[in-house]
Description:
Elements: H1 10-46, H2 53-57, E1 69-71, E2 74-76
Antiparallel strand pairs: 1-2
Amino acid sequence: MPRRAFVLPYLIKLTLALASFALLAAATFFAAPTLLALVAAKHAAVAPASPSTAATASVPGRLESEHITIRPTGFEPAEITRPA
């Protein structure tokens, strides 16, 4: 005669699942600033003290963008003209 496996009632399973989710969410919420600070500190320690002129010359002063909408009839605007 096979033994029946112990099965937790659904209410207990649901409670454990919600508690696990809450614990994971809280750990993520409170650990994120600490981890970001550690990464920023490590990046600052590794970054060179003075960037080369080649690196600074390739960084644009302003980021430009264009708004393009995709419709069933095609793109809007149909054509984009940019200065040289």
